[in-house]
Specification:
The chain is an alpha/beta fold. The chain has 10 helices and 14 strands. The chain has a domain of 207 residues: Rossmann fold (3-Layer(aba) Sandwich), CATH 3.40.50.
């Protein structure tokens, strides 16, 4: 693949850090983020999407823009819904305006499985109608519609990638696998909210990055589920697996939703992707097993 000039919004975040580390080996990249990057030898411009009005200048000269910047995480998105909606929707519109002004060839938009809400059919295909039940999910499906509308009116390409439960060793401990692994290593109790019967299909960050890179030249004006559907697991079984792999003495404790800061009305029970479309069009094939991914926390990779 030829060298590309790529701007990554939110490039200092979890996905952005792994993606930037991979892309800088073969491409010219620029990170724009409110926080400095966690890797060296990359161009960086500080940008607050909620306030900055000079975004067009920051992406000038880019061929591809990868829009990862967003308010994420249960704590942030549930405690400050207005900030979530403003940043994820109006911030996306600002990026799209900048793409229009700079005649960017393609934007890759980071969406989420949250847009599906509680699905009617498992596994979930891209044909499932969006029914978000969280502010975050609403903001992401709105962002998708903005991307499609701008592409149609201003004639640039896009790929929308709906990520399913990304995880990796540099992820915030507020997310389930890092939290469970960290507690297991310290022999602290592993807390499960609700019954633990919630089903998830976790996708290692290296496979997520692979899905993004495959969309550079493929999948134009299309949307894809990016995840790993090979090992769906309940949260209870996940806790047991992590205790086993870390040889931990941790106990598993169940906390009712009403006794925690989690809202049962916003807890999706089944979330497993159908990745047939990404496999056939992008050539996407996740390769890192859940056991391998969990063990990567122990090595810090």
């Amino acid at each position: 693949m030829r060298l590309l000039k790529i701007t990554i919004t939110g490039g200092s975040g979890f996905i952005g850090t792994y993606l930037s580390e991979s892309l800088k080996k073969h491409h010219e990249i620029k990170i724009i983020d409110i926080n400095p990057p966690k890797i060296k030898d990359v161009e960086f411009e500080r940008c607050d999407l909620s306030a900055d009005t000079q975004i067009s200048e920051l992406i000038r000269g880019s061929e591809i823009v990868i829009h990862l910047a967003a308010a994420v995480g249960v704590k942030i998105t549930e405690e400050d819904p207005i900030k979530t909606l403003d940043l994820n929707i109006l911030g996306t519109k600002k990026i799209l305006d900048a793409c229009k002004e700079n005649k960017i060839e393609k934007i890759i938009f980071s969406s989420s499985s949250e847009i599906y809400g509680e699905p009617h059919k498992i596994p979930i295909s891209e044909n499932e109608s969006p029914m978000p039940i969280t502010n975050y999910g609403v903001s992401k499906v709105t962002g998708e519609e903005y991307v499609k509308a701008y592409s149609k009116k201003y004639d640039f390409k896009y790929s929308i990638l709906r990520f399913f439960n990304a995880y990796g060793s540099k992820q915030s401990k507020s997310f389930v696998i890092p939290e469970f692994v960290n507690n297991a290593i310290l022999d602290k109790p592993i807390i499960i909210h609700g019954s633990g019967k919630q089903i998830r299909a976790f996708c290692h960050i290296e496979d997520i990055v692979k899905g993004i890179e495959l969309s550079f030249k493929k999948g134009n004006n299309n949307l894809f589920n990016i995840g790993n559907n090979s090992e769906p697991i309940s949260i209870f079984e996940l806790a047991k697996k992590i205790i086993l792999l870390t040889e931990s003495k941790s106990e598993i404790k169940f906390v009712p939703f009403e006794d925690s800061n989690r809202q049962r009305s916003r807890e999706i029970i089944n979330r497993i992707p159908d990745i047939t479309k990404a496999r056939e069009i992008l050539g996407f094939e996740p390769s890192i097993s859940l056991n391998e991914g969990i063990k990567s926390f122990l090595s810090g990779n």
